[in-house]
């Protein structure tokens, strides 16, 4: 859980540090396309989480020592849409005009073979 907390803090800092409002014309709009998950969804239930489980399995098979696996880090964090909305609003420079969640699995025409 410690790594997840660090990634969340990095996300919060990135959104507060990057003052994108200064780059927009007054009254302009910015489209943000972000990776997000529904509140309470475990990572093991999303495609990225499944991919990470496979990577972990491969790393465990390849590693000579367990600390090699423990030291490996992929900097990814998928915040919930509620959390993203809160972070954007806390930034103070933006208002959310529209927020949508899209489930990419609905676009698939068949099962995913992993």
From TrEMBL:
Keywords from the UniProt entry: Magnesium, Metal-binding, Methyltransferase, Transferase
Keyword Methyltransferase: yes
Source species, domain of life: Eukaryota
Claim: tRNA processing is one of the keywords in the record: no
One Gene Ontology term from the biological process aspect of the record: methylation
Gene3D superfamilies linked to this entry: Methyltransferase, alpha-helical capping domain, Vaccinia Virus protein VP39
Molecular functions (GO terms): metal ion binding; methyltransferase activity
One Pfam family this sequence matches: Methyltransf_7
PANTHER family, A to Z: S-ADENOSYL-L-METHIONINE:CARBOXYL METHYLTRANSFERASE FAMILY PROTEIN (PTHR31009)
Protein name: Jasmonate O-methyltransferase
